[in-house]
Every structure is written in structure tokens, then in C-alpha cells.
Amino acid sequence: MISLFLPLAHGLLIGRQDLPIPAWLFAWGASLVLIVSFVALSVAWRDSKFSSDGWRPVSQRLSRLITGRGVEIVTGAIGVFLLGAVVYAGLEGTDEPSLNFAVTFVFVTFWLGMVILSILLGDVFRAFNPWRAIARTVGAVFRLIAGQPHSPPLRYPERLGRWPAVAGIVAFVWIELVYATSGLGAVGLQPATVAAAALAYTAYTLIAMTLFGVETWLQRGEAFSVYYGMFSQLAPLEVRDGRLGVRRPLAAATHWARVPGSIALVVATIGSTTFDGAQEGLWQEPIGDLFDRLTDLGLGPTAAFRTSESVFFALTLAGVAAIYWAGVRGMRTLRGSPALRSLGRSFAHTLIPIGVAYLAAHYFSLFVFAEQAQFTYLLSDPLGDGSDLFGTASSGIDYGLLSANTIWYVQVAALVTGHVTGLLLAHDRAITVYGDPGRASRSQRWMLLVMVAFTCLGLFLLSQSNG
Amino acid sequence: MLLPLAHLGHWYFWPLYALPVLIVLWSAIATTLRERRSSREEEKRRSK
User: Which of A3, A100, A389, B17 has the most crowded CB, counting CB atoms within 10 A?
Assistant: First the structure.
């Protein structure tokens, strides 16, 4: 996570008080909760409840009030304004990342905050998406001038699926975790770099939208739309054909991973958080060793650091993918199982709650602390030039808001809740895939293994970076 | 002399975190093998 809040990401500033039991016992306890949940699901969950999401529209009036044209224009304008504010603050504001609106807004408020909104309220980002708003405005002007709508010149290759979005998310995380925290004074994420990246991404997105069509690119290639869209599958609200409706929470996720690249996206989500935790603990020494070797070979320190971090980032993504595929391969041992790839896609959505759990566990304290900065001094003095727009420029961050033990308990609770939810989704899916609850339960021993592995890994990483 | 021990905390406890994973893995493999064996025996019995 961004360098200025790095020590806060896992509560390092506040030394953890003695826990009533050793930290590793929490991993045992969490595993026990998962095993008990597995048994309970095997006994009590006999029919699939998530095959259909049971979407039903709310009243026309309420729907129009929330999703109407006027609201769409206002939210789109807010999105464009915030994108402009990031670029302007990045280019014109102070070079000090902790005092510039752009860095905290992009990597904390937007990156983490939008995940929370997506889970609670559905695909909120679609309404605020600045690139969608710009493209639709340009499209409307084109239609006015040309007298006909713009038709995209290229057909999107369906086999690419969500892979362009995966590439975008990995690139974003790489900038955040590797480029930004290269650990040396000479490098790091400058606000101007954030602005340049935002401009480059804007140009890339608008070109892609022109070539493949706005909606197609939003569903497949626009990294943030696809990323937040994934989390919104868990939400109880969805706009369908322009009408707001209520649906069964979690249920929409069941059919989410049919498109190629979906597994990679959810693996990238978990892997990036895992790497962020590991680089402060588990990977610290190996990264240092590789750095030494590379500098011995004559590579400059910055290049050596970024290369070593990139190698371990890639290894982490591969490791997370390996855990998932090991579970899927295990399920495949059950007679009459579908083909491996099909089975992989069938259960990929069960990793979404784990992605949420990892994000919550790793960044909960960072979010609480950084948002205090965001809505006080960074709001009043976005450029860090001494202005005080709302009278909150002199406010600070209250680090006493959360004790280190509170942070730890929230982390444990987030991991357990996320993995039990994943287990629930997996069991429900298995009933559909395997046809009867008995076979479903037998197949799910392997997903239990996946869930226990991710839980223990998460707690180990947190104990390392917290300790 | 104490320097190598400074990094011990990074690795020292990992077996304790790995233990639940190994137990579930062992249980999954053992049950799968047992089921396979019994289904093979069942098939043999039927073919006789």
C-alpha cells in the first residue's frame, strides 16, 4: 500500500498488546470454524439456494428517482470532476504524497472505498465512471452532428474475455505496490506520476471504447468497471435494463465467472493483497537476497529493487492460482466431475468473498486512518499549498481511534467471515454441479482445503507484518 | 551474534499455521483414497 501510510496498513504504529492466546492459535480456531461450517452445510444445506438470484424490481418511482437520467448526468459529472481533481492536484500540487489529494484519493478512497460501496449497493461505479460519462457525452455529440450513432469499427474478440481488465488491475497494483514502494529515497510514487497514469489510462480507455464500443469495453476491458463489477455480484441491489431491483445477496455471483479471465481477476485480487502483506514479512528477506544478487550482476539499485519485487509479485500470483487449482484438481477426483476448466470456472466466484476478506483484513486500519486525512486536511488543502477551503486543513489523524488489538480482531473476523461465505457459495454451487447433496459434500472437502489454506496464509501474513 | 535471530520471527511460527492445512489435506486425500478403494471393490464384486 502507498508508502506514506505503509506503517499503518497493518497497525504497525501501535504495537499490539499481548493477545490472550498466541496469534497462531487464531489460525487453528479459524480453521475449526471452517470445518464446523463445512459439516453444518453438509448436513443442513441440501438444495441450491443461489441458482437464481430472485431479482425483483422496486417501485417504478423509486427506481426512476435513483437511476433516472438526471441522476446519471450528475453522478457522471461528479466522476469526471474527481478525475480532473486527481490530475490537477497531481500536476499542480505538492510533491509530498501524504499532503497531496491525488495519491490518497486514488489508492485509498477510490481503490478501497468503491469496493465497500459495490458490496453494499451494487455497481455504483458504473454511475460515477468518468470514462463512461465522457464517452457517452462524446457519443451524444457525435450523434447530434452525424445524425447517426457511432458504430465501433472492431468486434471485441470474445476469447479475450476479461483478460484486458486483469492486465489493467495487475498494472495498477504493480504501480501501487512495486513502483510506489521501491524502498529507496530516489524513487516512489509522486503525485505527478499518479496524474500521468490517470491521463494515460484515460486516453487508453477512450481509444478502446471507440474501437470496441462503450458497453463492450465496460463489461470486458475497463479494469475498474470489471473489478468493482465483480464485487457488486455480492450486493443485494442491481439495475437491470434500467430498472433498480432487489435480489438475494451473494446469488448473482454464481454465474459471474463464465467469461474467460474471471479466475485470473479474482486470483489477482487475492494475490495482490497477499503480496502486499508478504513483502513486509514473508518475502522481505528473499526480496533482499534477490536484490543483492541483481546489484552484484551490475543492475542499478532502483531497477534491481523493482525487478526483485516484480518477480515475487508474479510468484505470489502464481502461488494463489496454484492453491485454487489444487482444490479444483482435488474436486476433479470425484467420479463424474466436469472437465477441469469448466470446474474451475464453476467455483471461481467462491473466491470473491475471500478477496473481500483479504482486502478488509489488510487495509481496514489504513482505510480508517487515511480517510480521516482524506476528509479533513486533504479536502481543505488538496494541493498541499496551505489553503483551507473547508476549515479542516489543520485537522490530523486520530491514531487512538483503533487499538492494535481491535485491528487484529477485525482482521481475524474478516478472514473467518469471508472464508465461511466462500465455503457457503462453494457448497451451494456443488449441489448444482454434482446433482445431489452427498456428492456435493464429498467434492467440497477440497474447497474446504482451499479455504483453510487461504485463512491460515492470511493470518500468517498478518501476524508477520503486525508482529 | 543475535543478528540472525532477528529474522527468526518471520519464519519460526509458519509450521503452526501450516498444521491445520496439512490436517485437512491429509483428511481429504485419505477419504478420497478410501472411497476409491471401496468403489473398486464394489465394481469387482459386481463383475463376479
Answer: A100
Which grid coordinates belong to A309? 519485487
Cell triple for A385: 499549498
Residues of chain A falling short of pLDDT 70: 1-19, 181-188, 466-467
Cell, residue A449: 482445503
B-side interface with A, Cβ within 8 Å?
7, 9-10, 13-14, 16-21, 23-25, 27-28, 31-32, 35-36, 39
CA gap A424, A444 in Å, rounded: 10
Which candidate from B10, B31, B39 shows the least CB-CB separation from A464? B10
Closest residue in B to A444 (Cα) is: B28
Written as nine digits, the cell of A439 is 456428492
Question: How much is the pLDDT for A465?
Answer: 75
Pairing of strands A237-240, A243-246: antiparallel
Give the angle A159-A313-B6 at the CA atoms, nearest 5°.
Answer: 160
For chains A and B, count residue pairs whose Cβ atoms are closer than 8 Å.
Answer: 59
Tens digit of each residue's pLDDT (9 = 90 or more) over A17-28: 566 778 889 999
Closest residue to A456, CB basis, from B18, B32, B36: B18
Read off the C-alpha cell for A279: 513483502
Taking each helix axis from N to C terminus, what angle separates A69-92 and A130-146, rounded to the nearest 10 degrees? Answer: 120
- pLDDT given for residue A280 in this prediction: 79
Q: What is the DSSP letter of A381?
A: S
Cβ A460–B31 below 8 Å, yes or no?
A: no
DSSP of A160-208, one letter per residue? GTTHHHHHHHHHHHHIIIIITT-SSTT-S--HHHHHHHHHHHHHHHHHH
User: In this predicted model, what pLDDT tens digit does every residue of A200-246 receive, in sequence order?
Assistant: 999 999 999 999 999 999 999 999 999 999 999 999 999 999 999 99
Of B10, B24, B28, the CB nearest to A282: B10
User: Facing residues of A209 across strands?
Assistant: none
Nearest-neighbour CA in chain B from A306: distance (Å): 22
SS percent in chain B: helix, strand, coil, step 5: 90, 0, 10
List the one residue out of A252, A385, A271, A260 whose CA is nearest residue A317.
Answer: A271
Name the band, by pLDDT with cuts 50, 70 and 90, for residue B6: very low
What is the enclosing helix (H) or strand (E) of A11? Answer: none
Chain B residues lying within 8 Å of A334, measured CB to CB: 32
Read off the C-alpha cell for A404.
Answer: 492494535
Write out chain B residues lying below 8 Å of A457, CB-based: 17
